[in-house]
Amino acid sequence: MSKGFFNIPDIKNEPIKSYMPGSPERIELKKMLNDLRSVELELPMIIGGKEVTTDHRVRISPPHDHKHTLGYYYQGDASHVQMAIDTAMLARDKWNSMSWHHRAAIFLKAADLFAGPYRAKINAATMLGQSKNAFQAEIDAACEMADFFRYGVRCMTDIYKMQPESAPTTWNYNEFRSLEGFIFALTPFNFTSIAGNLPAAPAMMGNVVVWKPSKTAVYSAAVIMEVLMEAGLPDGVINLVYVGGPTAADVIFQSPDFGGIHFTGSTGVFQGMWKTIGENIQKYKSYPRIVGETGGKDFIFADPTADPQAVAIAMLRGAFEYQGQKCSAASRAYIPRSIWDDVCTRFGNELATVKMGPPEDFTNFINAVIDESSFDKLAGFIEQAKKDADAEVLFGGKCDKSVGYFIEPTVILAKKPDYITMVEELFGPVLTIFVYEDEDLDLTLKILDKTSIYALTGAIFSQDRYNIERITKRLENAAGNFYINDKPTGATVGQQPFGGARGSGTNDKAGSIFNFLRWTSIRTIKENFVSPKSYTYPNFAPDKE
Ligand SMILES: NC(=O)c1ccc[n+]([C@@H]2O[C@H](COP(=O)([O-])OP(=O)(O)OC[C@H]3O[C@@H](n4cnc5c(N)ncnc54)[C@H](O)[C@@H]3O)[C@@H](O)[C@H]2O)c1
Ligand SMILES: N[C@@H](CCC=O)C(=O)O
Hints:
Elements: H1 24-37, E1 41-43, E2 45-47, E3 50-52, E4 57-60, E5 71-74, H2 78-97, H3 100-115, H4 119-130, H5 134-160, E6 170-177, E7 182-186, H6 192-204, E8 208-212, H7 218-230, E9 238-240, H8 245-252, E10 258-264, H9 267-279, E11 289-293, E12 298-302, H10 308-320, E13 330-336, H11 337-351, H12 372-387, E14 391-395, E15 399-400, E16 406-407, E17 410-414, H13 420-423, E18 430-436, H14 441-451, E19 454-455, E20 457-461, H15 465-474, E21 481-484, E22 501-502, H16 513-516, E23 521-528
Parallel strand pairs: 1-5, 7-8, 7-10, 8-9, 10-11, 12-13, 12-20, 13-18, 17-18, 20-21
Antiparallel strand pairs: 2-3, 4-5, 6-23, 14-17, 15-16, 19-22
Helix pairs in contact: 1-4, 2-8, 3-5, 4-5, 4-7, 5-6, 10-11
Bound molecules: nicotinamide-adenine-dinucleotide and 5-oxo-L-norvaline.
């Protein structure tokens, strides 16, 4: 038990390293990339701190070089999911009873390992396994991961400080229990830090976890687990299984001990799971917590006063960093006719300088999309746009999967605002632009608000303060993360709590106290120091004659 009200260390965002030519971090990262490319790793599941292998090995290759083998992971089945649940439940009591500052110490140490000795390894694993360039890997796998863990500790302690008042002769307090069960962390491919945060946040609050990463991000998931174990995470607290999503869900949603799901991924998958949980609700000991951050159809809206260069750069970075595979990526833009030619010229000129290729070449801005099914889906939309009368492919449009899954940054001009690529989440380097007549600004805002089921991120560009105020109000429900004169990506832990509503999720704001509150079940305790000795009220005394 803690003996003292301990202060946590100062928490700050992890500084982003530059990886300039000749810098020590660049030399170390290049060496790590070479080292990892020259071996074939064997990646077992980790259940109860033990390595678990099976007869089914699955090959892992870089999306930008699919003939190369990075290694193999051992694919499990339903029995491994059950084993992970049983192991987690056995670990629960001891973990839940550990003093909070020892739990905090494990995650603070893990943050320092990611920011220090494991920085090159987690970045290189993300670059090779998920095809991210050095800058995108750095802001995600090293910096955002460390931020999630450090700010997580602050969220946990801020919650523990939330205590009620006490009337005379009594003492009331809130005890922040872990949930009575296990948490299912189901993680996406696109952010290594999200894959780390989804199991870590509930674990910090004293919960035990079954973690299933995306099959296309197993390579970096194994490094996350390695770091957590080196940081001293006890066996069984987080159990890492490599199984198909439906296989995991089938076992987990039948378990009476299922206590909650921490999900990030696509909207359809989330809605399907929510339905299953609802159908099974009577099986569970408690109402499961359902936290899910899902898809987006994120927008950029410019008014006639917008700075054309700022709009062009926001479209380029917002739509094409990490090949548009950020849930926050700009995928539709609304530009007024009066500035369109200027914006288009600047955008085209900038785009012409962008290089595409493998992330091992540090000069490449665009790398490959995650896998063949994503490539085929994106290529299909682009080919269709080339044929459709309602669309015109303005820039890019070439797709080539002979070496890796490369799709040129592609810009579609939509002739109507509900053209399919203005509506559906594509999750790739495709931006669709609709040019509106200046006098239709209000109508266009209405259309923007109603065009998609999502409300994740959005950015407006204007130099007119009245318009900024008016548009911000008009689009109040169109985005959970709203940007003024900035791109709609790159939310930073501790600065812009992240998440969206409508079809984009439960908006519990990853990395913030609002999210951490979902992983605790409060017991309020009242102690009376002077227990009443009689049941009577003072007003029972008779009136004086
Ligand atoms: N809102 C956010 O904060 C946020 C952040 C990152 C990604 N995303 C979203 O994630 C999506 C991209 O990631 P993805 O392709 O990994 O998502 P995905 O939904 O395909 O997969 C996410 C996880 O769910 C699992 N899964 C897939 N189908 C399943 C099923 N039927 N049952 C159970 N589990 C299943 C996957 O194996 C993976 O582990 C995009 O829609 C993107 O917008 C949202
Ligand atoms: N934090 C990231 C979102 C992650 C989603 O994929 C951003 O704001 O760009």
